[in-house]
Amino acid sequence: MRLGTPIHDAATLGRLIRQTRKQQSLTLETLAGLCGLSIRFLSELENGRETCSLVRVLLVLDALGIELTAEPPEIDAP
Questions:
Q1: What is the C-alpha separation between 76 and 2, in angstroms, rounded?
Q2: What Å distances lie between residue 51 and 2, 5, 13, 57, CA to CA?
Q3: How does 37-57 read in b/e, with b if 16+ C-beta sit within 10 Å?
Q4: Where does the HTH cro/C1-type domain start and stop, copy by copy (predicted)?
């Protein structure tokens, strides 16, 4: 069973992306080519820029094989 990383802010997501990219021995240039985005965008994303486009973020996650999931809060039944 794989454990996920709780993502509460852009900085945490950026660290996860950088760590995964480096584990896969990918340079920013190579990853940019894989997902059709600029090196500048990837650098800003990895550094936690909060205004990055969700569509572009999803392209990066897909290129790295990172699955994004969301869990709704548990609500106590009456």
A1: 27
A2: 29, 21, 13, 11
A3: beeebbebbbebeeebeeebb
A4: 17-75
CA atoms of 37 and 61, how far apart (whole Å): 12
Q: How confident is the model at residue 1 (pLDDT cuts 50, 70, 90)?
A: very low
CA 45 to chain centre: 8
Nearest partner of 21 among 74, 13, 10, judged by Cα: 13
Under 8 Å between Cβ of 45 and 17? yes
- Check: CB of residue 28 under 8 Å from CB of residue 63: no
